[in-house]
Amino acid sequence: MPQSLSAVYIHLVFSTKERRPFLRDPATREALHAYLGGISKTLDCPPILIGGMEDHVHVLARFSRTITQAEWVKELKRVSNLWLKEQGVAYGDFQWQGGYADFSVSRSKLDRVRNYIANQETHHRKMDFQDELRSLLRKHDVEWDERFVWD
To answer: 58, 13 in Cβ contact below 8 A?
Structure first.
């Protein structure tokens, strides 16, 4: 086949360091989500939806065939960290957590994941980020060690 074609969708989740609620301000959080979308698009991973809460982010994107997951996440975090620190002194100590979790999404489940991300505020009235991540890890049969998942 002379062409290289790909249709891989990824649901990425990562939090602020120690799950600190740096993203309380809805306007700043929305601006950050838009900025993350721009970074992802630049990396040839067009975003479908970005959302989250005061202490974490969800990114649903069509993944590029020319970048690794680790490179994508590293750049998303690096560039957005710099941008957020420029938003004011309140973000001077801001950091993302060291790790992340990402999950493959089939084309048939995109709407379901998109709705999940869009309804984060409602969802988090019942469940905090740590329980949400544990639930996602169980759903996707990912083994983890509690000692190393949270930083």
So the answer is: yes
